[in-house]
Amino acid sequence: MNSSEVRSDLSPLNQLWKTFASVNLTIVLLLTLAATSIIGTLIPQNETPVAYVQAFGEFLYRLFALLGLFDMYHSWWFRALILLLVANIVICSIDRLQATWKILFVRYPRFNIARYRKLKNKVDYKDDGDADQLKNRYQPVIARGFRYHRLEDTDDGFAIYGESGRWTRLGVYVVHSSVVLLLIGGLIGSIFGFDGFVNIPEGESVKSIQLRDSDQKMPLGFEVRCDDFNVDFYDSGTPKEFRSRLTILKQGKPVVQKDIIVNDPLRYGGISFYQSSYGNMTPNEVILTFTSQATAKIYSQRAAIGSPVVIPENLGTFVLKKYTQQANFRGQNIGEAFIGILTPFGGSPLEVTLPLRFPRFDRMRKGEVVIAIADFLPRYYTGLQVSRDPGVWVVYIGFILMIIGIYISFFMSHQQICVEVVSKGEASDVMVAGTSNKNKMGMQKKVIRLSERLANLTPME
Amino acid sequence: MNSSLILSLITFVYGLAGFLYVFAWIFKKPSAGRLATWVALIGLIGNTAGILMRWVESYRMGIGHAPFSNLFESLVFFAWTITLIYLVIERRANNRIIGVFTMPIAFLAMAYASLKPGISNEIQPLLPALKSNWLIAHVITCFIGYAAFALAFGISAMYLIKQGRDEEEVTWMNFAKPLTLFVFVLLFSRVLLVGSWSMSVIVAVPICILFYICVFLARRLPGDLKDRLLAMFPEPPILDELGYQMTLFGFLFLSVGIISGAVWANSAWGRYWGWDPKETWSLITWFVYATLLHARFTRGWRGKRIAYLSLIGFAAVIFTYFGVNLLPGLHSYGALGQ
User: Cα–Cα distance between A400 and B113 in angstroms, integer?
Assistant: First the structure.
């Protein structure tokens, strides 16, 4: 029967099975995944269409969008590649497990002495003592060194077989199932979990969060309050710590309170709140100074946003209108600033910009009064990443299995040895031969060491 | 005497060790080889002391943290791991030639850390995101993996040199090889050395020419000298096996490194995987080495094909390590960025 006949015997289903059971497919898929994954690291992912058109132009934008390259790790073709790899892993494992099974689950492993005689990896030597003496000497050593051993008498002597690590042949299946678990975990997360964010001003609370990748808001089923937010800096000016004090409220009653920092989230009801960003809010109150140009006196006064302040010396009234992170002055960005309206006594209202970075800025206006911000209590909002991922435990089990599985399949092996003794009168011919499914060089050393050890055993009385 | 000074000195110690390994090999001086081992060992001890002192110094400065927080510290640890693993191999394989191809990598890592402008050797305070117990586990496992792959790279290079040219080389290969070399050198000059692509071409062209001059000269060495130099290499099957062992070792640690990073990311950002460029590149590296392992273990590939895959894998490692600083992403704000 030649090969073309074999092929024609296969039904289409069998043929498909054979294709998916091949390691060639694995190699092609792994390399394709490696190569295509590069694209998404070169093209920034999930930006706005405007940014893409600007960067690539109209034509490339349309082409890339069609291929899903702007969110390529979630595109249909990338998912299809991963799905193919998983199908390949599963079918390949089942296919091979059938063969491994027969080796694994036998009560009495069969030893074929002829097979060991043919091995390259063997040591022959002569030992003084007849077969019976050597049997007593050798057997305890093999029994200690191998999980399973058996002694068989031959026509002119005996043979001891030793075997260990048979189960390590399962290591590769542990690794493969861990990959499948990672994908199942990921799938559970994407179906039953969510990923969103919320900004909470200090002192305020929220009942819902903004979902990422959608315009929808999602109700939490409870309230989250930000009691306090603090940011610390090192002397060099780099941030040291972001800390938010959060309180979970159920029907208005506090149930949990926790300070969260980066790397230490708050978890409640399966939902986790991570410290991810922060920003400045309009402060509730500032301290203003009014410098009268006429008398050079400085007046200091508290002011809240929206409530007018009467300036001494009949200089008029001033009302703080708003706070802005980026104020503009003649087309220049002058940073954080307050904007207010000054109404001089008997004059018309005019807008005044009070940048925080330049306290003497208002002098440039050359008015009768110079207004400046002397001090204010910064008020922050905390930016929280909010997510729920019920699949994470499946993924973590996958992680643990992967590490264990890789260790077993790389660094442990199924080892079999055979010691054959042929009586030659007073002395005997000894052969020590061994084989393993992995790390053949290590096995070679082991056989040499074992033979030296056996040869140097002192005769027991 | 502070840690920065010690670590600068170690650069020269590693350089000397590398030089002695090469000297012992070319001039067949076993005594120089033994000296090289001692020098490398002294370098390793100094490197260890430097790392520990830096750790202590950071606590004295009031910003105490393990010295694995920026590019400088990671390079120092990378050199330390390469030297340690190499010395273990040297002892077990009882062969000093591998040092010719691996000690220079440790030297280059240290020299790069000290000399490249923009890599600060100052002890910097930790950013909030790096304040985690996972930092130590993540960095150590990743760099043991990287170091093992660096050694596998050196050993694969030795394998390719030992095997020499194939009898019948296909014509397109004669063009493909220099082109591939040029593309890789161009890429890595940009990533490691210069700030623009045009400068990178200026750097890459002479490097490639120099490489081919070396190849040209090596081929014209007198036959007996060439034989003598190559005869000191371990036999090809041993190199092949050793490179494979290193790859297995590296793959285990790369996997643990990626996993510890994922667990850390989940505690810091609420997601264990986000297709951030550095994450993605570590996965690409993992795919390349997974291919190598499958090809070798189940398809029975040996020799040159595996050696070339090992070179590609190490290129992916270097890109994961350095190249990602050119790309946008979460790691660029600090973890191993500058």
Answer: 34
**Running along chain A, 461 residues long, what does each successive block of 10 average in pLDDT?**
50 86 91 92 84 87 90 91 94 88 78 85 86 84 88 87 90 94 93 91 91 85 92 84 92 92 90 88 82 87 86 88 82 84 87 85 86 83 92 96 95 91 85 88 89 79 45
Residues sharing a CB contact under 8 Å with residue A101, sequence separation 6 or more, in sequence order: none
Measured CA to CA, the distance from residue A177 to residue A162 in angstroms comes to 30
Cβ within 8 Å of B, A 53-82: 73
What is the distance in angstroms between the CA of the first residue and the CA of the last residue of chain B? 25
Judge residue B192's burial from the number of C-beta atoms within 10 Å of its C-beta, 0-12 exposed, 13-18 middle, 19 or more buried: middle
Query: Which tokens go with A315?
Result: 């200089």
**Residue A37 and residue B266: Cβ atoms within 8 Å?**
no
Task: Tell me, yes or no, if A27 comes closer than 8 A to chain B by beta carbon.
Answer: yes
Asked if B271 and A242 come within 8 Å (Cβ–Cβ), the reply is: no
Task: State the count of interchain CB pairs (< 8 A) between A and B.
Answer: 114
Q: How many CA atoms lie within 13 A of A247 on its CB side?
A: 15
- Can you name the residues that pair with A273 across neighbouring β-strands? A266, A386
Q: What is the pLDDT of residues B138-155, one digit of tens each?
A: 999 999 999 999 999 999
**Tokens 């009495």 map to which residue?**
A108
Q: Do B268 and A38 touch (CB under 8 A)?
A: no
Nearest by Cα to B96 from B54, B146, B175, B41: B41
CA–CA–CA angle B1, B6, B12 (5° rounding): 140
Q: Do A386 and B281 touch (CB under 8 A)?
A: no
CA nearest to B62 within chain A: A234
Q: What pLDDT is attached to residue A5?
A: 45
Question: Are B116 and B274 in contact, with CB atoms under 8 Å apart?
Answer: no
Per-residue exposure over A259-276, b if at least 16 CB sit within 10 Å of its own CB, e if not: ebbbbebbebeebbbbbb
The answer to whether A221 and A237 have CB atoms below 8 angstroms apart is: no
Enumerate domains of chain A plus CATH numbers: 3-95 (no CATH), 106-165+413-455 (3.30.310), 181-282+381-391 (2.60.98), 285-376 (no CATH)
The Cα–Cα gap between B285 and B322 comes to 13
CB contact under 8 A, A239 and B128: yes
Give me A134's structure tokens.
């050597």
Q: What angle do CA B249, B253, B258 make, to 5 degrees?
A: 150
Question: Is A273 in contact with A246 (CB distance < 8 Å)?
Answer: yes
Chain A contacts of B132, Cβ < 8 Å? Answer: 263
- Give the pLDDT of residue A8: 53
Query: Do the beta carbons of residue A292 and residue A300 sit within 8 Å?
Result: no
Give the per-residue pLDDT at A404: 97
Using CA coordinates, name the residue in chain B closest to A30.
Answer: B287
Q: For residue B282, what is the nearest residue in chain A, using CA coordinates?
A: A34
CA–CA gap between residue A362 and residue B192 (Å, rounded): 49
* Nearest chain A residue to B316, by CA: A34
CB B247 within 8 A of CB B292: yes
Q: pLDDT at position A161, please? A: 92
Query: Is the ipTM value over 0.85, yes or no?
Result: yes
